[in-house]
Every structure is written in structure tokens, then in C-alpha cells.
What does this fold into?
Amino acid sequence: MTDLAIAAHGLRKSYGDKTVLDGIDIQVPAGTVFALLGPNGAGKTTVVKILSTLISADAGQARVGGHDLTAKAQAVRASIGVTGQFSAVDGLITGEENMLLMADLHHLSRSEGRRVTAELLERFDLVAAAKKPASTYSGGMKRRLDIAMTLVGDPRIIFLDEPTTGLDPRSRHTMWQIIRELVSGGTTVFLTTQYLEEADQLADRIAVLNDGKIVAEGSAEELKRMIPGGHVRLRFTDPDAYRGAASALGEATRDDEALTLRLPSDGSQRELRAVLDRLDAAGVEADELATHTPDLDDVFFALTDSTDSADSADVTHVTDQPKETVR
It folds into this structure.
């Protein structure tokens, strides 16, 4: 437990007769990225608000930064930083003034505040815009400034509640690099996100939250292995070769019109080699071989209620890589 930046057990929260969190457990090792993934209304932001002392849980216990969430709330606040879905940047003042304001709130001396401000503006590539009103910043610049303001107090644990929502792909990838650099420096990041690829790219562990309960947890690869559906697809242009392959691979699903065969597979090199060896023995060769392994899209829709249109619309699929790999 001493190596855990965040440890929560049995967290519950209700509003009237609506149960938002139904007894969830969370453990986040120090110096890692933990992603909480779930549809709109699943309770992601409620978890962040509880763990950052903004609201109280109805039941359950938690320790954040080694401090009891209820008994040592002030110590918890001193050890964390929070960046919400909506920017805390004041657009009427400059980026530098926003930073200096945060330094004052953290009771830094004038000289220390200016030193920290200068370092963070440099780190987040905001020096050129430091003297300009924050209202003139792009969305990506505002999010960088938002996180820079969060780091003024040098927190060891940062809660990022959907930090890249609304950003273009380039700004999103820049934010990912910033998060990786924070973690490499020993910071713990608790991330909620609507972007499946974001969790896949960044998180050491992912928890899927649905209807107030954690329905699955593990690394991205562990979660993907939970879901069936991996397969190998073979395509032929020669009907004779297609028939020969279908005979050699008797368990394959056939599509006689498209001249394709599909076999269940975990995508491992061993299974692919076995398929190719059987084709070689039959004296046929596929014109195209493609593999598909379940990704976080498959995991998400298998574990959550995707029939609710509001929930389904909440999760954004950003896929730089195709789901099928063609060889």
C-alpha cells in the first residue's frame, strides 16, 4: 500500500435515488498513468471530484498521496493538482499573469513564483505568448497553460479529467507527450478520457466504468485479450487457389463471392505460421492476408451498454492505425 499513490475501497455516491458510484475500488501505483474509461454518465468525473476532495463520498475509504481522504483532506489537496474538463484559464489576463496568480495561491514568494512561472512557460512552449491575453490562445495552448498552472505547486499526483476534449489531433498528441514526460519524472497521473486510443497510448492500467461500477480493469493488452473476435482473413483472386485453401483450412468461414476465408486467431506469430504452413502443404498461396485483434473499441462496446445512444455518442474513436493489419 505504501507504493500506491491512490487507494480507494468501496466508494459510493448517490444523488437522490440515482446511484452514481456503486462501491468501486481503485489502486494506482505511484509514477504511473491510470485511465478511467466509460460512457457519459458512468461516474468518471464524480470519481475525480471525490478523490480530489471537491465532494464527499457517501461511503467507502480512500488514501491519496498517503493521506486519508477524510481525516487529512488539506494534506491531500497539498499533494495533488487537478485539471478539469473546462479550462481554469482567465482569458482577461495574460498567460504569465495566470501563472503568477497560481503562484500567489500557493503562497510562493515573489521571486520563487517568477522562477517557477518562467520554468513552466518554457517547458510548455508558451514563452512567446506569455505576455498576450489568454483569450487569444488556441485551444491547445489554453490546455497547455491549464496544465502548467496545475504544476505550479509541484504536485506528485495529477487528476486530468478529459484533458484533450475538443483538441485537434496535433494538439492532442502534444498533450500526450506532456503527460508522458510528467510520468517519466515520477508524477502519478489519474486520467479520465473519452478517447479510446488515448487510454491505449498512455495508460499503464485502465479501468472501465459503467453504471457506477468498474466492470473490468487491467493493462490495455489484458483487456483486449478478454474479448473474443480475433481472426485471420485470407483473400484470393484465383478461384482454384481459393477452393484449395478452403479444403486445407476446413474450419474456415467461407465467402465464395469475395473469395475470402476467415479463421479465428489470437494474432500470434505461432498461429499465423501454422496457417501459412497448411497453405504451403496444399500448394496454394493467398493474395492477401490480414489479421484482426480486438482493440479498445471492441472492449468498450463489449463491456458497456452501447445501446444507449447518449452513451455511445460520448466515446470518440481516434484510430491512427487500422484495426486490421494487412501483410
Remarks:
- The longest strand covers residues 4-15.
